[in-house]
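BUG: 3D viewer hangs when loading the predicted structure for this chain

Environment: internal workstation, default settings.
Expected: structure renders.
Actual: progress bar stalls at 90%.

Input used:
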Amino acid sequence: MPRSIIESYYQAFRLGDAAAISGALSRLFTEEVTLDSPIIREKFGNRFTGMPAVIGFITASAPMLRDAWIKGMYEQFGNPASIATLIELPTPLGPVLQSEYFVVDLRSKRIASIESNYDPRKLLTLMSR
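Structure tokens produced before the viewer hung:
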């Protein structure tokens, strides 16, 4: 079940329209969802907490994630609520690999936290253009 929730998360970016993406994500996140990454810490100083902040940031990032594809999805041994993914993002600077670590609330069947880890140099260069 957590794997299908994570697959739905990535499928939401293919909807294209910001309102559709936001609506899809609101059905996938807990109210207290957190989002953390090197880019967020660099630009904002701390992680995002709460559905409105997380959805706002992710929806703004959706064009970069629309063409992402999952290279691998891994369940933490002994903990089905923890899923890690390796995705590839095509960018004008070449492909960027990014790993994301998800924690799914098994009771609500929603994503409780996301931690994105990647080489931020390529993305920082892209975002500064």
